[in-house]
Amino acid sequence: MADVTLAKKAGFCFGVKKAVDEVIDLQNRINTKIYTLGPLIHNKEVLKRLEENNIFSIDISDIDKLNASDTVVIRSHGVGKAVIDKLQEKQINIVDNTCPFVKAIHNKVEKYYNEGYRIIIVGDDKHPEVIGINGWCNNTALIIRGGRPEGYIPNKVCLVSQTTEKFQNYQKALVDLSNTCKEILAFNTICNATKERQEEVSKLSIESETMVVLGDRSSSNTKKLFEISKSSCNNTFLAENYEDLLSQISIEDLRKHKVGVTAGASTPDWVINKVINEIKGDSHNGK
Ligand code: SF4
User: Which fold has domain 3-11+193-285?
Assistant: First the structure.
């Protein structure tokens, strides 16, 4: 019997599951072409299934090509206020699937920007979530990766974080700002889903002879899980699905080892179940 352990927190996080379930439910109800602003999630298998269900990803720059009464879904990363305003101006049906944890950051940023605080975001300035957050303070935020921002810092600042940021970066920014600013409002807005997955893979990779990390190569949280796993278990494989895994290691070799499996926050259950069932030799249950 193969020895395989699946991490308890593997696969879809709350926000991604909600976004995918709701868009499929919406499609069942309105049965017409639906657009998402950017890929709903970073997973090719899921995006293929969505396209088969008449749900297509478009860029923000494509909004001008849309017609009044088209339906547009905002993904869990969220968007800035100007994007919502533009969609409303064009009388497009908006279905806002911004993750509630991200929406809470938008609300804080808007409130404190209006009260005269300079917004500082710890995160990646190119990431759509950070671009969206910055859009709630008129794109005036200082965006940093930890530590003190360069240049002049006002005395009154409001600090928030990208939901997937490392805690150490947030902490460093807070400590450094405390040396400079008189008034700091600091909100640790890092999401637990990321932290829990990283802590679990850290333990599982120490106990396993082989680790399988399932997820898209374009998914940043999957890549982080892979890096953490690889640092304790050299025999770690990053695979997008079962076929991809088999191109790197044979099923016979997998079955000889104590295997740990985890998956990024945008990896669907059917990809995880297929791999687990195949390793166990129970393939007829996999879809
Ligand atoms: S990682 Fe957290 S904040 Fe991001 S979509 Fe998932 S639940 Fe929401």
Answer: Cobalt-precorrin-4 Transmethylase; domain 1 (3.40.1010)
pLDDT at position 79: 97
CATH architecture of the region 101-190: 3-Layer(aba) Sandwich (3.40)
Number of CB atoms found within 10 A of residue 17's CB: 17
pLDDT tens column, 170-183: 999 999 999 888 89
Which residue, judged by its Cα, is nearest atom 6 of ligand 1?
15
> Pocket of ligand 1, candidates 16, 43, 74, 189: which has the most ligand atoms within 8 Å of its Cβ, to mutate?
16
Whether residue 69 contacts residue 35, with contact meaning beta carbons closer than 8 Å, is answered with no
Give distance in angstroms: CA of 13 to centre of ligand 1: 6
Residues annotated as catalytic are: 129
- Please identify which residue in the block is written with the tokens 């849309």: 66
Residue 74 alpha carbon to ligand 1 centre in Å: 14
Which residues share a beta bridge with 244?
Answer: none
User: Around 268, how many Cα atoms within 13 Å sit in the side-chain half-sphere?
Assistant: 22
Architecture of the domain delimited by 14-97: 3-Layer(aba) Sandwich (3.40)
**Count, residues in the chain:** 287
Mean pLDDT in residue range 169-196: 91
Q: Which value, in Å, is the radius of gyration of the alpha carbons in the chain? A: 21
Residue whose CA is at the smallest distance from ligand 1 atom 7:
15
Domain with CATH 3.40.50.11270 in the chain: 14-97
Nearest CA residue ID for atom 2, ligand 1: 191
Q: Which amino acid is at 183?
A: E
- Residue 218, H or E segment: none
Neighbours of 251 (CB within 10 A): 14
For residue 283, the model assigns a pLDDT of 62
